[in-house]
Amino acid sequence: MGYRIAVVGATGSVGREMVNILAEREFPADEIAVLASSRSQGDEIDYGETGRMLKVGNVEHFDPAGWDMALFAIGSEGTKLHAPRFAAAGCTVIDNSSLYRMDPDVPLIVPEVNADAIAGYAKRNIVANPNCSTAQMVVALKPLHDAARIKRVVVATYQSVSGAGKAGMDELFEQSRNIFVGDSAEPRLFTKQIAFNVIPHIDSFLDDGSTKEEWKMVVETKKILDPRIKVSATCVRVPVFVGHSEAINIEFHDEISAKEAQDLLREAPGVMLVDKREDGGYVTPVEAVGEFATYVSRVREDPTVENGLSLWCVSDNLRKGAALNAVQIAELLGRRYLKKD
C-alpha cells in the first residue's frame, strides 16, 4: 500500500523537479495529484521518464481530505492561503516557501542534518524546507560541526538565476542574446543587468544593510544546526542558469586538519567530495546540474585563525536546495510516522 501525495505548484521550476524526483526515487505513491492555479488547469506534465502523463488540477478546488502529504512550491502567498487548509484536513504539508521556516512550531528539516527534529511536525502538520543556499551549506557543515564544533561561518554565495524562477532564467537568456546582437539589455526582474555581470543583492534590504537572503542563511543555519554558531553571509546572483556555489570559511572551537575534514566529508551522507589539488580537480555548477549530491572541493586550512578551514560547495539548487530536500522529507515522514502497511 502506497501514499496519496500532491504536488502543489507542479508547473513551476521547483514543482516540476519535485514530480521528476518522486519518479526517479520511485517514491511509493499509489496516487499523485499535480496542482497549480486555474491558468494551468487541464495541462499535462510528465511523471519523470516513466512515460506517464499527469493532468494538472486546480488547487483552489482540490479536496485534501484523505491525502497523506502535499509538497508545496507556490510561494509564501499561496502557501498562506492553502497550507492551513491541507494541514487541517490531515494532509501533512512540506512547504518550500519561507513562510513557516522560523515558526517555532514548524520543524525546519534537512534530513542529513537534523532528521530527529521531524518529530515536531504534528504540532501544525507542516514541515518547512530551508532556503536553497542554506540547505547545501548545512549538509557540508554537519559532519565538521560534529567533529570540532563550529564557532563561526563566513560564506559568500554565487547563486544561479533559477533561484529567481523561470523569469530569472529567461532574463539571463534574453539579455545574453541581446548583447551579442547589439540590442538593449535593460533589466526587468533583476535590479541590474545579470548577463556577463554579478549582482550582490538577493531579496530585499534590511535595516542593518544585509539582505533578506543573507538573513535567511543566518537564522536558518542556527535553527537547523546549532543556535550558537555565528554566521556572516554575502549573497550574490551570478549569470549561471542552474547550480548554487558557496565559498565557505569556518572557524572551529576544536582543532581539525584539512585531511581530517576531507575524511569526514568523504563519508558524510549527501556529500560528494571531489578535491584533487590539480587543474579541474573541483566541481563547478555545470557538473552539479541534475545531481542529488552536495559537492565539496578545495578543502584547505586557514592559517589566519587558530582552528580554521575554507572550502568550496556546489549543488543543484532546484534539487537539493528545494525539490530533492522536500522529497527526502516526505520519505523521512513515511519511514518514521506515516507508515503504510
Explained architecture:
This protein is of the alpha/beta class and 341 residues long. It folds into 2 domains: 3-130 and 322-336, 3-Layer(aba) Sandwich (Rossmann fold); 133-316, Dihydrodipicolinate Reductase, domain 2, CATH 3.30.360. It is built from 9 helices and 13 strands. It has helices at 13-24, 75-88, 111-114, 132-148, 166-181, 212-224, 258-267, 285-288, 319-336; strands at residues 3-8, 29-36, 44-46, 53-58, 69-72, 92-95, 126-128, 150-159, 230-237, 244-252, 271-273, 294-301, 308-315. α4 crosses α6 and α4 (132-148) crosses α9 (319-336). The mean pLDDT is 96.
Keywords:
341 residues; alpha/beta; Rossmann fold; Dihydrodipicolinate Reductase, domain 2; 2 domains; seven-stranded mixed β-sheet; six-stranded mixed β-sheet; 9 helices
The H-and-E topology, N to C, reads as EHEEEEHEHEHEHHEEHEHEEH
Outline the biggest β-sheet: 7 strands, mixed
Query: How many separate domains make up the residues?
Result: 2
Q: How large a portion of the residues is in β-strands, by DSSP E?
A: 15-25%
| CATH homologous superfamily grouping of the largest domain | Dihydrodipicolinate Reductase, domain 2
From the helix content, strand content and strand pairing, which structural class follows?
Answer: alpha/beta
How far apart are the first and last residues' alpha carbons, in Å?
6 Å
User: Within the largest sheet, what's the order of strands?
Assistant: 3-4-2-1-5-6-7
Write down the overall mean pLDDT. 96
